[in-house]
């Protein structure tokens, strides 16, 4: 009897230990796993080659699989596969590492309202989960659509396709993020809020903003890009018309400006000018597509003064309409040059 109890206690202890270990090692499944040799750029101050190379596209607008028409969002998954939102061609292209042409991953290259199409006036950002399911902010169809890996059409996972302010609606969705529990976070652009949609939910929950458009700490102003730090439950949002990046703990009543000055635009190291997108690295340094300043700004964690690492002011490559940024496992930088019909890569030094 005593031995049986001891055996039971041992098994129970092993189960508890396994659960604790799983919790401790849990990470965001879509976070880029950096090579161990990569050092925090804000520590060694080694940045990027300021002269970029064309990574995707040929610089000429078109419909071929090696061309884009007004590309917008970038998403890099953990295998360094790059997903590109080809806004004007109503599609998402997938570029495998080193590829010279893309693979059609979502959309049909025709516009419309059917579930195998994207809106006439375009799409902005997408998110790809560990199973390569693609979540697309179908901006002017006012919905977020999930395209399962290999599917020929999508399923609506947020919004009802009608522009509105009710919690079953979204208005011009931009940034999209999906957590490890399949909750969908949506930047509800013209409602100046971020909403969270649980799996199969028909109503969203406001988790940031929602207090009208403005520059106050409890407001957003035409938010655009989105990054979610799931471990700390912090949303990072490019606040397009307020010219800031805001850090907003999920469900908090106020956010914190972590880049830019609310309501002020400019080209100095502390200012932004219509920022569209952002990414974070594992040290929570922030990379911002500072669109109207034609540059990419690096804000080291906790620092409100930015450093230009690509584009205007860096002394190298001139960026044309930088809309989105991405980082690979070597911390190389990728920029969607919307008006140049290409993605440019800047090698990490």
Polypeptide structure, described:
With 349 residues, the protein is mainly beta. Helix content is 8%, strand content 35%. The protein has helices spanning 2-25, 41-44, and strands spanning 53-56, 74-76, 82-86, 91-95, 103-107, 126-128, 134-138, 143-147, 155-158, 173-178, 184-188, 193-197, 205-209, 223-229, 234-239, 244-249, 256-260, 275-280, 286-290, 295-299, 307-311, 322-327, 333-337, 342-346. The strands form 6 sheets. Strands 1-24-23-22 form a 4-stranded antiparallel sheet, with no helix packed on it. A hairpin with a 7-residue loop joins strand 4 and strand 5 (103-107). The longest helix has 24 residues, at 2-25. The radius of gyration is 21 Å and the shape is globular. The model is unreliable at 1-6 and 14-30 (pLDDT under 50).
Class computed from helices, strands and strand pairing: mainly beta
Query: What proportion of the residues form beta strands (DSSP E)?
Result: 25-35%
Q: Tell me the number of helical segments per DSSP (H or I, 4 or more residues long).
A: 2
Approximately how much helix is present in the residues?
under 10%
Roughly how many Å apart are the termini?
Answer: 65 Å
Mean pLDDT across the residues is 92
> Which regions contain 5 or more consecutive residues with pLDDT less than 50?
1-6, 14-30
């Amino acid at each position: 009897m005593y031995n049986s109890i001891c055996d039971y206690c041992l098994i129970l202890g092993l189960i508890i230990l396994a659960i604790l270990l799983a919790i401790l090692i849990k990470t965001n499944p879509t976070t880029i796993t950096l090579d161990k040799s990569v050092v925090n750029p804000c520590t060694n101050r080694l940045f990027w080659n300021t002269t970029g190379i064309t990574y995707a596209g040929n610089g000429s607008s078109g419909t071929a699989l090696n061309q884009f028409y007004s590309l917008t969002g970038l998403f890099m998954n953990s295998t360094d596969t790059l997903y590109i939102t080809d806004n004007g061609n109503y599609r998402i292209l997938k570029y495998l590492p080193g590829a010279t042409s893309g693979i059609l991953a979502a959309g049909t290259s025709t516009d419309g309202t059917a579930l195998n199409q994207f809106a006439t006036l375009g799409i902005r950002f997408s998110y790809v989960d560990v199973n390569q399911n693609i979540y697309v902010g179908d901006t002017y169809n006012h919905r977020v659509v999930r395209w399962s890996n290999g599917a020929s059409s999508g399923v609506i996972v947020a919004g009802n396709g009608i522009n509105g302010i009710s919690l079953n609606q979204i208005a011009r969705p931009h940034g999209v993020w999906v957590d490890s529990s399949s909750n969908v976070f949506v930047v509800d652009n013209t409602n100046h809020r971020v909403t969270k949609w649980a799996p199969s939910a028909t109503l969203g929950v406001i988790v940031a903003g929602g207090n009208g458009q403005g520059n106050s700490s409890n407001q957003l102003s035409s938010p655009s890009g989105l990054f979610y730090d799931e471990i700390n439950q912090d949303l990072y949002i490019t606040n397009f018309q307020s010219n800031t990046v805001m850090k907003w703990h999920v469900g908090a009543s106020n956010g914190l400006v972590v880049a830019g000055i609310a309501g002020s635009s400019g080209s100095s190291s502390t200012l932004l000018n219509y920022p569209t997108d952002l990414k974070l690295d594992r040290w929570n340094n922030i990379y911002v597509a500072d669109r109207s300043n034609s540059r990419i700004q690096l804000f080291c964690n906790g620092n409100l003064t930015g450093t230009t690492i690509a584009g205007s002011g860096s002394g190298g490559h001139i960026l044309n309409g930088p809309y989105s940024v991405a980082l690979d496992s070597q911390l190389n930088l990728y920029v969607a040059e919307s008006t140049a019909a290409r993605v440019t890569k800047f090698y990490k030094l």
